[in-house]
Amino acid sequence: MTNISNILVHTPLWVFAVFAFLMWVGLQALSPRTLSIWRLLITPAIFITWGVESIVVRSLSSPILVVDWSATLAIGAAIAWTTSRLDNVGIDRQRGTVSFPASALPLIRNLLIFSAKYVLGVAAAMMPAWRPELALWDIAVSGASAGYFLGWLARFALAYRRASEPNLAEQVR
What we know:
Elements: H1 2-9, H2 13-28, E1 33-36, H3 37-40, H4 42-58, H5 63-83, E2 90-92, E3 97-100, H6 105-126, H7 131-162, H8 168-172
Antiparallel strand pairs: 1-3, 2-3
Helix pairs in contact: 2-6, 4-7, 5-7, 6-7
């Protein structure tokens, strides 16, 4: 138990804040919900920023990490592009809102990515000799998650663009 408490004590506070936010967003997704566009973009922004930050911090230490990150970014984007289904999503461009059906996917996806990053960070801190190997995996998770959310955003932007424009003639009446 002391190892777990030691790990938690040495975990930066921002990690707990990100975890709490991702749990909150994921639990909300278990029910149908309507979000403003800006709120919809928060979770992708977190994972994209986290992914980009990971490669920026480490890119100078090893060029192979840039290749690793770029390859997994492309894979993550391809997965999101091919698997994202927005058929049941209601887009109201006039109000700037998006309605989603209930889904466990955001909770599961967010917690899997967060857990992978957290476990790899803890492992690197506890086993310094393994840091180079763990860095490859950490960068791969960062690239894949950033790519996934970039792919999802591209798919969403296309759906948003295709959503019907409000009929201005009806608004005048």
